[in-house]
Design goal:
The protein has one domain: 3-Layer(aba) Sandwich (Rossmann fold), CATH 3.40.50. Helices cover 32% and strands 17% of the residues. The protein has ten helices and nine strands. Strand 7, helix 7 and strand 8 form a beta-alpha-beta unit. The structure holds thiamine diphosphate, iron/sulfur cluster (SF4) and magnesium ion. Keywords: Oxidoreductase.
Length: 268
């Protein structure tokens, strides 16, 4: 057996991550915080777009949040819009280009706090668009304030003693609400806290693109993402903290799949 010298740190990385970079990512690095879950979620989305051969046939509409900086890193036709309004912009684009996969990239603050009317009305109309909500339970970009999705007891920058139901109200569980609406054909919640969840989320993202393209109405794909900076926890503790807080309230899995009967996915 070959003895490994452990007296020094490794002189080369264990994995050459650059070799696995999706083609739709322009660079291997990003500007988000260490331990942030958003780059993982975005990477998964880009990989699925490539797999589904939508590379030349998709448009992304970004809301406002830390994920917004990826507009410079994705080789995808993209546009920014006013905070929370992405589903409305997506509606216009889809109606002009029905054959194109139109997707929004939003956060919990963007979608559930600032843009609640837009996502609800877009679901009510049954628009064939894919809406991603990266849910970290805070307005990460502005410093970690409470959003409509922060859970009871969650410590945020403006709920230092924890969110209190009586004073701050209860969280809005948007996916559960949309799953009751006829115009929303696919509603699922994934997470990026460990390898198994990343794998399961990737499969759900596939359907989140496929169902609207097959005319089943709006897809809401929520993904729980770590925000150690906004939660005031060390980067390495983000995943565990997330599942002890958001993970207790926001159950993972598919909430609705109107196209399940016509599913020919062999990898499920
Ligand atoms: C109308 C409006 N209100 C507030 C802001 C400030 N703002 C920019 S990003 C952001 C936080 C977004 O939070 P979220 O969508 O959850 O994304 P995260 O940063 O957590 O990924 C806020 C409040 C803004 N740009 N426009
Ligand atoms: S503040 Fe939170 S969401 Fe924003 S980049 Fe940092 S860890 Fe990610
Ligand atoms: Mg957020």
């Amino acid at each position: 057996m070959r003895a490994i010298d452990t007296s020094l740190p490794p002189q080369r990385p264990a994995t050459k991550t650059a070799e696995f970079k999706p083609s739709l990512l322009l660079k291997e690095d990003h500007h988000l915080c260490a331990g942030c879950g958003e780059p993982v979620a975005i990477r998964l989305i880009l990989e699925v777009i490539e797999e589904l051969e939508l590379t030349q046939n998709n448009v992304c509409i970004l809301g406002h949040g830390c994920y917004g900086s990826f507009i410079m890193l994705m080789d995808v036709d993209s546009t920014l819009c006013l905070h929370g309004r992405a589903p409305a912009v997506a509606t216009g684009m889809k109606r002009m280009r029905p054959g194109v996969a139109i997707w929004t990239l939003q956060g919990d603050g963007d979608m559930t706090s600032e843009g609640l009317a837009e996502i609800m009305q877009t679901a009510a109309r049954g628009e064939d668009v894919t809406c991603f909500m990266l849910n970290n339970g805070v307005f990460g970009d502005t410093g970690g304030q409470m959003t409509a999705s922060s859970v009871i007891g969650q410590r945020t920058k403006n709920t230092i003693e924890g969110r209190d139901a009586g004073y701050h109200g209860n969280p809005i569980q948007l996916a559960e609400i949309l799953s009751q609406m006829p115009g929303a054909g696919y509603v699922a919640r994934g997470s990026v806290h460990n390898a198994a969840s990343i794998n399961a989320t990737r499969k759900m993202i596939r359907k989140a693109f496929q169902r609207p393209m097959d005319g089943h109405g709006l897809a809401l794909m929520e993904i729980l993402t770590m925000c150690p900076t906004g939660w005031f926890v060390p980067p390495g503790e983000g995943a565990e903290y997330m599942m002890e807080s958001l993970g207790k309230v926001y159950g993972l899995g598919e909430l609705k799949d109107a196209g399940a009967a016509s599913d020919d996915d062999s990898d499920d």
